[in-house]
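Annotators were shown the component list below and the corresponding predicted structure, then asked to write short factual statements about the assembly.
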Amino acid sequence: MGGHIVTSFDDDLIELRARISEMGGLAETLLALALDSVEKRDSALADEVITKDKRIDALEFEVERLATQVIVKRQPLAQDLRLVISAMKLSTTLERIGDLAKNIAKRGKHLSTTSPMRVSGSVVRMGRQALAQLTAVLDAYAKTDVEAAISVWRRDVEIDDAYNAMFRELVTYMMEDPRTIGHGSQLLFIAKNLERIGDHATHVAEMIYYTAKGEPLGDDRPKGDPSDLEPRS
Amino acid sequence: MGGHIVTSFDDDLIELRARISEMGGLAETLLALALDSVEKRDSALADEVITKDKRIDALEFEVERLATQVIVKRQPLAQDLRLVISAMKLSTTLERIGDLAKNIAKRGKHLSTTSPMRVSGSVVRMGRQALAQLTAVLDAYAKTDVEAAISVWRRDVEIDDAYNAMFRELVTYMMEDPRTIGHGSQLLFIAKNLERIGDHATHVAEMIYYTAKGEPLGDDRPKGDPSDLEPRS
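Structure shown to annotators:
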């Protein structure tokens, strides 16, 4: 190690990681802004999310371009190659998270003109859980911390549980009072997008594991029971 | 076109596409077997899915290896590069579909020992819808048929609707008769995995579009309303 070529590959990786880190930071910002726009019924914040999402889209192509260049120039093998390919896959995942945040913001705009509903607070809290998972997994990526990645992967069950509990709660409200249906449907969509962001965080955790270990993370991840009416066995 | 290097790149692409086609065929088989195992409460079929999923995992690495080789050897640009990168991304998506099918099969095994429930039939029907979407999008990929890809992308709303209707139906059953909770929970999980397979089919449709056009497919896809208690506006 320490030779000229190795150093240059390291430089390439630093640049790739810098782009991923920019994308990750943006994805976090978009999600945080989207949640704020839902909480405060603030249309201007929602518009900011919609505009900023374009930057993530552009960064995805930038990462693809850089990663391809590195493969051509350095012809990396084994773990080095896994690092480059995982950067490319991660960029796709972060772009999808940005899309989901944008979708949440768009739905937040519909909420701003209708009556509030007690359950909005739970949706925003679930959103902060998803944001915490995203932050933790991006941190694990930056530090190549496999243990931290595994614990994000295991914690996803909590978001699944929150989603399933909220689904039942919202459906019950809407059945009791049909005037809440319009508002409740938007909240259900938002909750569903948040649950998906949680899923993407687990995909990132799987990539971190695979890149470091060269083998896939098992598939015995605890999963949120969509009924949750029975005690976890 | 028609020169020596172009022809060789085409040969590489044919090999890449052959691997993707093998993966796609396997993903379809796994899903079909998983649905059969649920329908017939057949544990042996479920075990077959679990075993065959290993082959998809191996193919994902094979596609990554091939795609990287092609990038190094041919240094493709523009649409050629998009073709190679989309093959790599598609392999990840197909691997995830295989995982979801395996998860369905595992849950199908739990069903085999418990009492039947009327709603199982709807879950299997929803599964056949998801399978039809998967088949259609793989067909669109093989033929580079952008129009067919767009129609798969638009049709995903039907699976979302089926999932949301089933969720409410199952929750209602379980509330009325707590003895159905164990069975119903497994069915909910299966329905959720099927809905996710539908989502992955739309991701493939987006890749086909992007590879052909060089720009992303818009984000105005009709989405299934998780309430569906109100008429679609």
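Statements collected:
1. The two ends of chain B are 50 Å apart (CA to CA).
2. Confidence is low (pLDDT under 50) at residues 225-233 of chain B.
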